[in-house]
């Protein structure tokens, strides 16, 4: 069998990202609606999505702004919600760390949950891929997602309140994260971290400015790290 080309891996990435259209479209439409209802103009809504490209963080910021939260809380919370991108970057470094800096900058700009999840699973499945092939796959997945995120954001911003409430577009948010997170729960540490974070977030829903989410995330990471440490120690002593 001849080796795969960058063109081949690009199309593989494009196909891998295609199913996410089912959740990206309603997710981005919902953001467009929420942003305009919060007082954003069409230009501001599009610019926000274009320059930030961070769905969950954008929703958080818009919600806090609509609640007249202090600017420092809006910035800190948005950064905390997006802190997972730092972990994504760390796990991609062994695969893409030697790529040219311009390519790494583009990878960072295009990094969203769906692109990362598809890419890291493909890299683990195809360790023989070159950096060029891995980049091609990454950009292929991005091509299925980022343009649609921007386009449907504008659809939501333009149509706004004309979308019937019965459409329940907010279903896309939890479904998207469940689809990405579930395949990654491969160890007891992962499951423990997810369980603690979910339980804590439910108990802290009344916390102001969505601070309960930040606390729950921190607790989940602490528990996950502790469980992993104990499991590693147990394995070493066995």
UniProtKB/TrEMBL annotation:
Keywords: Cell membrane, Membrane, Transmembrane, Transmembrane helix, Transport
One GO BP: L-valine transmembrane transport
Protein topology in the membrane: Multi-pass membrane protein
Pfam families, A to Z: AzlC
Gene Ontology cellular component list: plasma membrane
Entry's localization field: Cell membrane
Primary localisation category: membrane
Key word Cell membrane present: yes
The keyword Transport is annotated on this UniProt entry: yes
Protein family membership: Belongs to the AzlC family.
Name of the molecule in the record: Branched-chain amino acid ABC transporter permease
Organism per entry: Pseudorhodobacter turbinis
